[in-house]
Every structure is written in C-alpha cells, then in structure tokens.
Amino acid sequence: xxxxxxxxxxxxxxxxxxxEIQWISYILRDLQVQTDLLVVxxxxxxxxxxxxxxxxxxxxxxxxxxxxxxxxxxxxxNLFRLLSISSNDQLADVFTKALxxxxxxxxxxxxxxxxxHHLA
Length: 120
Known about the structure:
Blueprint: H1 6-30, E1 39-43, H2 46-53, H3 65-76, E2 80-84, H4 93-96, H5 101-111
Parallel strand pairs: 1-2
C-alpha cells in the first residue's frame, strides 16, 4: 500500500493494532477467559493520537477514513486506552529506525537484550 504521509502510515499501524487487540479479546471471550485489564497503547505520534480522540474529520484524514472509524469506535467502547509517550522512551524505535548510539544502547538495555558476540 502506498501512503501519502507519515501520519497515514502511523494511523494505519494504529488501526491494525486496534484490530489485533479486538481479535485477541474475542479469542479470550470464546475461551471463557475473564479479564478486566484495559489494554494500554503507548503512541509517540501526537497527530495520530489527536485524530483518534477528535470526533471531527481533518483534511489530512481523507485517505484514512475507514481506519479513523475503527480506532475511534474502539476507543469509545474502552477496548483500549491510548497514551502518549516521548519518542526518546519509545522502545520499539530500536527495531524500526536508526538511533543515535547512546539512545540505541539505552533502549537495548531496557529491553534486556544482550549481544551474543560480546566477549565475557
């Protein structure tokens, strides 16, 4: 799929994650597993977070209107909670983008990852 902006890519990822959360909740319900825990998603894109919480459409959402409805409805039904996180604290960035060496080492240590090539 070709996206027209980084916001569109981020929002489509949010919509995909929303669908996965719903699928897991259906599986747990079918297995009769009771859970009262609310899923919390930490998101570092403020624009995507604003669109998810804002009931009015913006010009930049014209290509992601279906995803907008999916995320917005699930947020309203309390399927999950969307919280912001600083990009510096976003641990997933170690897997998705080039980081400064210091940030890379900090994130790797937070994930508990060890180098298999490091001499003991």
